[in-house]
Amino acid sequence: MSEHAPDPGSASESTAPDPAEPARWSVRRRLQVGGGAIGLVAIVVAVVLMRPPSAYADIADCGELFTEELLTEVHLEEPGVSVEENDPPGPGLGSEQNRYCVDAELGQFTADIYFHSPDTRSDRYEELQERITENRGRAEGSAALDEQDRLAELDDPPRYVATEIEDIDAGEGGFAAVYEAQEEPDTPSLDTGEAEAVSTFARAEFRTRNIYVRISYLEASDERRGSSMLGTITVTRLAEALEARIDETSTKDSV
Length: 255
What we know:
Elements: H1 8-15, H2 20-50, H3 62-65, H4 68-73, E1 83-86, E2 97-103, E3 109-115, H5 126-147, E4 160-167, E5 172-181, E6 186-188, E7 195-197, E8 200-208, E9 211-217, H6 229-249
Antiparallel strand pairs: 1-2, 2-3, 3-9, 4-5, 5-8, 6-7, 8-9
Transmembrane segments: 31-50
Region (Disordered): 1-23
Keywords: Membrane, Transmembrane, Transmembrane helix
């Protein structure tokens, strides 16, 4: 045999495929496909999480919202508590419907409930969220000016100044504040029509989907010079219970 004849083994070694190669390709392929699927799922989940919750399609009336059970839950089960629906005292702030629920007998609380179009979901309820941010900002601003004794510098100082502000577990951006009069006002109490000095009151505000809520609470007349803590606790309980009641009684928009 010629010494230049090719080695039979060299040809087979150079051309035979490595049996391990297809396995490595298969594993790599599966990893690529699996990784792509996981990435797609992550994107879908992120999109779903970013979408705001469905809007409410309606709002119940005051009688359905402030049930005897709810009033008992927040320790307002006194025989004199009677919640009625009155005409709103002011504009609806762009809302489609406005509920004005009042404790007509004792005059201890009012609830302004603003129902906005379900279409506000398209911009993630931005306008309503901005309103609660602005209202909290005003409360914090008045509190800061009061602490610095700078209210007298204002041309038109606020009649009431926030003295305590805290977050509450109601809706988005919910907060409660205690407001004190800068001078003794002689104004009618909440819907009793009788003139009396309202020196301090507690208020809670929150947004739940396309509904904006503002609740004001006064202590009983013989306690209004007392601790503001009870007022804050009560208005917070009212806000949290009302949010749950709104969710129970309102229909979710299907869009």
